[in-house]
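Hi support team,

I'm opening this ticket because the web form for multi-chain structure prediction keeps timing out on my end. I have pasted the exact lines I submitted so you can reproduce it. The total is 567 residues across two entries, so I didn't expect it to be a heavy job. Is there a limit I'm missing, or should I split the entries? Thanks in advance, R.K.
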Amino acid sequence: MFFSSPLFLAFFGTLFLVFYAIPVKWQSAFLVFCSLIYCSFFGAANLLIVACITAASFFVSRKIAASTRERARKMWLRLGVAVLVLTLAFFKYANIVAAELQGPLAETVVGILPGLKSLSAPVGISFYTLQALAYIIDVYRRNHQADDNPTHYTFFICFFPQIVAGPIERYHRIRSQLDVAKKFNYQPVTMGLRLFLYGLFKKIVVADNLAAFTNPIYGNLQEQTSLAIFIAVVLFSFQLYFDFSGYSDMARGVARMLGFDLMRNFDYPFNSTSVTEFWRRWHISLSSWLNDYIFQPLMIALRNKNKAGIIVSLFITFLVSGIWHGSTWNFVIFGMLHGLLCSYEFLTRKKRKRLFNALPSLLRKPVGIMLTFGFLNFTWIFFRVGSVAEAVYILQRMTGVFYDLAAYLTAGKTIFDGNMSSLNIFFCFLFVFIGLLLDQIDRRYDLLACLNQMKVPVRWFAYFSMCLCIMLFSSPQVYSFVYFQF
Amino acid sequence: MNRTEIYNQLNEIFRRELEEPHIFLNENTTAADVDEWDSITNIQLIVSIERHFQVSFSSKEIHELKKVGDLVDRIIEKSGY
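Hello R.K., no limit was hit. The queue was backed up. Here is the completed structure from your submission:
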């Protein structure tokens, strides 16, 4: 049940009316109930798994809090981490491991668990398991107390706007908001609606139109010209951004309408002048999670190894990030490439700073942005494809881009196969331009807050224009959110 | 060594490690206030500070440092200045 589906709109509309009509003391329980119903739309098994993870992490956190001896606290922490990580690993990777097995072992495994090869990961498990892990580690670190209210804790894990694909929230941020009575307030509700509308525009006008272009090319690489593949590689970068940031805006908008503030997941990542900066701006809830629970502890433990300690920590963190996204080798390479470049940036930080300062000030930022964007396009090839062989094939085809461009310009050779036209590509770049323009206006002036300050006719004209855009230019086919697969 | 002297020496370490000559730390300075102070440079700063003041922080203590004031408190506590 995607945010843009009529079923979700009906579900949320009903929930919204009831939420503000019932007494404040019942609101949290009501949202937990609705969140569990939302989970059940993805199948009863999903509901069962999320319930088990919630119950197990709640139980472990109570045990950590109740233990007075450090040894017992550590034992419960290790047990909790092991249960959560193994559950996540089982649902995400067991089918792939089973498919790789051969001989008598494969027969035994399939005999015991016949459905293992076709097992699919429950929706959102990669996201809410990280929330549960962060929670028990923070209880162990005494960053906050263990919650004794199962309703509040279930709310933290299952809150429906973020359970499917984040943002990966932290307990202290959500818990403090639960104590505030939620009465209908025009301002936050309309702000939430604006955020939802903006996210919907990003998703179904920009991202889905780009998907309509990139999917056929990635799905049939052999038949495409090198230039078409190159354009698809570049456009996929924008598709991924507008898809995921659109989803995040919609999730935040829905939560805001109910009086909750979810964390921002993106901070204009295409303005990054280095890959290290990019990871501070992209999927912030995941990168800050990796920073707090993997990178920092590793770096602190290895700090006496000097630079080698930092590089090892970077590599392990990006390896985990790659594997979190998927278990195939292309995701491992995706993570390793980022680990490699962040290590390079770390080792050359001072030299690069001097080099950049030697450039004319007008060029510094654009050069950094272009280099970073070029690297991201390269690594997202590994992110988008189904196997390393496909990624290698795309990289091999890149050598023909200039030849195709010359042939197009001089001999009028076509770039796309029969299903694509130059008009399609014009609209794709137009949507990217509009999306990026709105993004930059938002960065400088806070687009939605500005809209709020404007007079009623201007405001409604903007809403009407955006709705019209959505109706006229939305992709005929609705694509599922890219990050739902994780 | 009093708090002012510790701040002066910390300013020197921060300026050298981050290559930012205009850093002036105070009690409430946090990583968010200094452009170059990120999670990687943070650990390099910790190592330099440990070596300079001849102290050693545990992982838990490093996690608990939220602002420069906390760091100065820990240096005083550990070194006995």
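A quick check on our side: The two ends of chain B are 5 Å apart (CA to CA). Let us know if the file doesn't open in your viewer.
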